[in-house]
Design a protein that fits this description.
Blueprint lengths: L6 E5 L9 E12 L5 E6 L3 E6 L2 E5 L3 H16 L4 E6 L4 H6 L7 E6 L2 H10 L1 H4 L8 E5 L2 H7 L4 E7 L13 H10 E10 L7 H12 L4 E7 L9 E7 L9 H11 L8 H6 L5 H7 L5
Parallel strand pairs: 6-7, 6-9, 7-8, 9-10
Antiparallel strand pairs: 1-2, 2-3, 3-4, 4-5, 10-12, 11-12
Helix pairs in contact: 5-6
Length: 291
C-alpha cells in the first residue's frame, strides 16, 4: 500500500522508554510486501528512509556513519580479514564498505528477508553501490541464528548488522546466537554488533554486555553518532578472545589506512581509537559486574 499524501512517520521502537521521534514523509509512505513491517519514504533532511518494524533502519543522508564504523573498525583492528560473515545488513551498506578492503576474499551476507535486499537494490542503490554484483559477496536468505548454529564455514570476523531487538531481530541479541558467532570465528577473530542507544535503555545495555561476556573473553564497546538514531550516541560491541584487537596503537591503524589509500567520510585513524573512549555513564553500564 502507498499513501500519496505527506505524512509523519513515527518511530515507535523506543515506546517503552517514553520516547518517540517522527520524520516527515514527503509524498507519503510506501509499504513493502514483506514478512516484516517494511516501508520506504523520502524526507527533506535525511533523504530516502527505510523503516523496519517501527524503527528507522537507514537513511541515505547519514548511513555512511553507521556502515563505516561497523565495517572499518573491525577491519582495521584485525588487519588481515579475509573471510567475513555479515548477519543482517540486507541493505548492502556494510558489505559495500568491507569490499573496499582488497585483502577480503569472501563476504557471506545472511539476511532473513529477501524483501530487504530487493528494496535496497530498487530504492537504495547508493547504499549498496554495486555490492550485490561483486563476486566476493554471497547472499544467503536464512535466519542468522540458525546459520551460525549449523554452518561448517569459519570466518575472521562476524558483523551483526541487526535491527532492534524486537520481532525477527530479537534472537540476534540472545546468548545462544552469540555462542554460535563465537563457534564460527577463527582464532583471533572479532565480533561486532550494533548495540543500541545506551541512554534510552540502560538496563538492557547492562544485560547485553553481560550476555556477550558469556561467549567472549574480551568485550569492549565503541560509539558512533548517527543523527537519525536519536536519543544519544549509538553503541557497538567489539568482542574477541584477543583483547589486543581493541587496543591497536594509532600508528598501526594509520599505517593500515594509508596503505589502502581510501577516503572515509566519518571513520579516521584518530577516531578509531577515540571511539572506544566511553562517557562515564556508558562505561558504568557495560563494566563487568563486581564479584
Amino acid at each position: 500500500m502507498t499513501k500519496s499524501e505527506d505524512c509523519w512517520v513515527v518511530e515507535t521502537v523506543n515506546d517503552p522508554s517514553g520516547f518517540r521521534t517522527a520524520l516527515k514523509a514527503v509524498g507519503g509512505l510506501k509499504e513493502v510486501d514483506s514478512q516484516q513491517s517494511l516501508g520506504v519514504f523520502d524526507n527533506p533532511t535525511f533523504g530516502r528512509v527505510m523503516v523496519l518494524d517501527g524503527a528507522y533502519q537507514i537513511t541515505t543522508a547519514d548511513e555512511f556513519i553507521y556502515h563505516e564504523m561497523m565495517a572499518h573498525v573491525p577491519a582495521f583492528a584485525h588487519g588481515t580479514l579475509r573471510h567475513v560473515l555479515v548477519i543482517g545488513g540486507g541493505d548492502g551498506g556494510v558489505a559495500r564498505e568491507l569490499l573496499r578492503h582488497p585483502l577480503i576474499e569472501t563476504i557471506t551476507l545472511v539476511e532473513i528477508d529477501q524483501a530487504v535486499v530487493d528494496l535496497a537494490k530498487d530504492h537504495f542503490p547508493t547504499v549498496c553501490d554495486g555490492a550485490f554484483d561483486d563476486p566476493r559477496l554471497t547472499v544467503v536468505i536464512d535466519d542468522g541464528a540458525a546459520f551460525v548454529a549449523n554452518t561448517d564455514a569459519r570466518f575472521d570476523a562476524v558483523i551483526v548488522d541487526a535491527p532492534d531487538p524486537v520481532g525477527a531481530g530479537k534472537v540476534l541479541f540472545e546468548a545462544p546466537f552469540y555462542a554460535g558467532c563465537h563457534r564460527v570465528l577463527r582464532e583471533g577473530g572479532v565480533l561486532v554488533t550494533q548495540s543500541g542507544i545506551p541512554f534510552l535503555t540502560p538496563q538492557w545495555m547492562r544485560d547485553h554486555a553481560a550476555t556477550l561476556r558469556q561467549s567472549f573473553g574480551s568485550v569492549r564497546f565503541f560509539l558512533s553518532t548517527v543523527p537519525s538514531y536519536t536519543g544519544g550516541p549509538m553503541a557497538h560491541s567489539f568482542c574477541s578472545d584477543d583483547p589486543s584487537l581493541a587496543n591497536v596503537d594509532a600508528a598501526t591503524i594509520k599505517a593500515r589506512a594509508e596503505a589502502l589509500g581510501l577516503a572515509m567520510r566519518y571513520w579516521t585513524p584518530t577516531l578509531h581509537g577515540a571511539a572506544f573512549a566511553l562517557p562515564r555513564y556508558v562505561d558504568e553500564l557495560v563494566a563487568p559486574a563486581s564479584p
